[in-house]
Write a structure and sequence with these properties.
Elements (H helix, E strand, L loop, with lengths): L3 E4 L3 H10 L3 E6 L31 H14 E10 L6 E4 L3 E3 L3 H13 L2 E9 L15 E8 L13 E3 L13 H4 L5 H4 L6 E3 L3 E3 L7 H4 L11 H11 L5 E4 L6 H8 L3 E5 L11 H25 L5 H11 L1
Parallel strand pairs: 1-12, 2-3, 2-11, 6-10, 11-12
Antiparallel strand pairs: 3-7, 4-5, 6-7, 8-9
Length: 324
């Protein structure tokens, strides 16, 4: 079975474990929201989300900088780091001027690219409805930034066709896009006329859930104060982590990334210092159990696929996501 290493530990300890194992192919996570704005007077305000357990109540700019340094060392050359980061907690300059959104997402991108030395490959949008709150004079936020970084040194793994969605028209892309059977190494004329003509690749704007499912059904645990959806994790794991590769979430929470990595036969390293509020159970323990259950359920199929050279696992995953 693939490696599952999830412990109650800090992000520094989790990322140091990645270094011990020779580096990971993918880091995918959402760090705590900031409670301090670089360059602003005072704090943005009290933290809006409490993670419980031993998790720190404040996450400051120096923590984001230290996180970037640790991420660089934890990646293999060519490995990718994808960070969902935003500053939805606003601070108010004055009652006359009003409140403002944090610039932390942009400062982080610049710092990690220029000081840390990661390549800033892409900026993506995680599309979801924001909290209503006090929006004046802004619109309600419907997305969060996802920065895609890469450690230099190698090309790295990226599968742009790992996840697709239906095309806008049935005949779109018939002459250019390969079919599902072509992924399986079958280039028959029949396969070229199959349904793949009705699919298209994702853009950098990625929805929270696939197939019209509600966001709540895509969340691993509604008790976690800041979850992201399984679909968004699936998109990134399938696209940036090679089959049998190693992924990591140093803020693993309820285990969304761990579950998805285990589902697709990837090893996983995770850590978290928080605990579930309603019963005090540590999030790392919850995530470890969920990932182990997913790996145990999927391992027999993974072994069968490895023995049988007919459909490759990734192609099967692709078609299941397409028809979900």
């Amino acid at each position: 079975m693939p490696l599952i290493d999830i412990e109650h530990r800090s992000f520094e300890e989790t990322l140091a474990r990645c270094v011990e194992l020779g580096g990971v192919d993918l880091l995918f996570f959402s760090p705590p929201y900031p409670t301090e704005v670089p360059g602003a007077k005072g704090r943005e305000g009290a933290p809006t989300r409490r993670y419980g357990g031993d998790a720190p109540k404040h996450f400051l700019w120096k923590d984001y900088q230290r996180l970037g340094d640790c991420c660089y060392r934890a990646l293999k050359p060519g490995g990718f780091c994808i960070v969902i980061v935003d500053g939805p907690v606003r601070f108010t300059r004055s009652r006359q001027i009003g409140s403002e959104r944090s610039l932390i997402a942009f400062r982080l991108a610049i710092d990690w690219a220029e000081r840390v030395g990661l390549r800033f490959v892409e900026h993506e949008a995680y599309l979801r409805d924001g909290m209503p709150g006090d929006v004046s004079p802004r619109r309600r936020s419907g997305w969060e930034p996802m920065h895609v970084f890469q450690r230099p040194g190698r090309r790295g793994f990226f599968d742009a066709r790992a996840v697709t969605k239906p095309a806008l028209s049935a005949g779109q892309g018939r002459s250019r896009r390969p079919t599902a059977n072509m992924w399986l190494g079958k280039k028959s004329a029949e396969s070229k006329a199959m349904v793949y003509a009705a699919t298209r690749m994702l853009t950098t704007a990625i929805t929270a859930a696939a197939g019209g499912a509600t966001v709540n059904k895509e969340i691993s645990d509604p008790d976690h104060p800041a979850p992201f959806t399984r679909h968004i994790a699936e998109v990134q794991v399938l696209s940036y982590c090679p089959p049998g590769g190693l992924a990591c979430d140093p803020f693993v929470g309820s285990g969304t990334t761990a579950i998805v990595a285990a589902r697709h036969g990837c090893g996983f390293i995770g850590g978290d210092l928080g605990a579930r509020e309603r019963d005090g159970r540590r999030w790392a323990d919850i995530a470890r159990e969920r990932a182990a259950e997913e790996a145990a359920a999927g391992w027999p199929q993974a072994v069968a696929a490895a023995v049988d050279p007919s459909p490759q696992p990734r192609a099967a995953e692709q078609m299941s996501l397409l028809t979900a």
